[in-house]
Amino acid sequence: MGGIVLYTGVVTKNNDWDLFPLKAINLFTWLNSMDFYTVILKKSTDYWVSLCLENRIVGQGNTPEISIDKLKEAIDSWSEIYENEPDIYISPISINELHEFLTLEDSESSDSYELRKVYA
Fold first, then answer.
1. Distances in Å between the alpha carbon of 62 and those of 46, 49, 96, 113?
2. What residues contact 89, with CB distance under 8 A and at least 6 apart?
3. How far apart are CA 48 and CA 68, in angstroms?
4. CA-based R_g, the chain, Å
5. 56 lies in which domain range?
6. For residue 118, what are the β-bridge partners?
7. Is the alpha carbon torsion for 103, 105, 111, 116 positive or negative?
């Protein structure tokens, strides 16, 4: 059975995290004031790719957890640079880029996606 599986979750800096189906999003209403990133996880044949919608930064790993860890490292690295050079252009992912990420197929096929809220 193919398709898109959407989840939301909390990833803290100490890498504790939980996943909940989107219907359980009300569990996170108290977190609205916190800074977070929206991440889509895409399962490829051999690895997971995580894409941050707010800044187009990606991470990759053999598991969703490793992919999220790599993404958080990339976001932290980018944040350090941005603090010293605020003139760096940043923009959220466009609909066309998101569509390409979700549908681009070469020799691999992806039937599994996850949407997460990531605190970095």
1. 7, 9, 26, 14
2. none
3. 9
4. 15
5. 4-103
6. 37
7. negative
111 falls within a domain: no
Query: What pLDDT does 70 receive?
Result: 93
Neighbours of 115 (CB within 10 A): 16
Per-residue pLDDT tens over the stretch 60-108: 999 888 998 899 899 889 888 888 887 888 888 898 898 888 886 544 5
Residue 117 covered by a domain: no
The two three-digit tokens of residue 19, written as one number: 């996943």
Residue 120 lies in a domain: no
pTM here is: 0.63
User: For the sheet containing 58-61, what is the strand order?
Assistant: 58-61, 48-52, 37-43, 113-118
Question: Which is nearest to 71 in space by CA: 98, 42, 97?
Answer: 42
Backbone angles phi, psi at 67, to 5 degrees: -60, -45
Tell me whether residue 109 is in a domain. no
CA separation for the pair 41, 7 (Å, rounded): 9
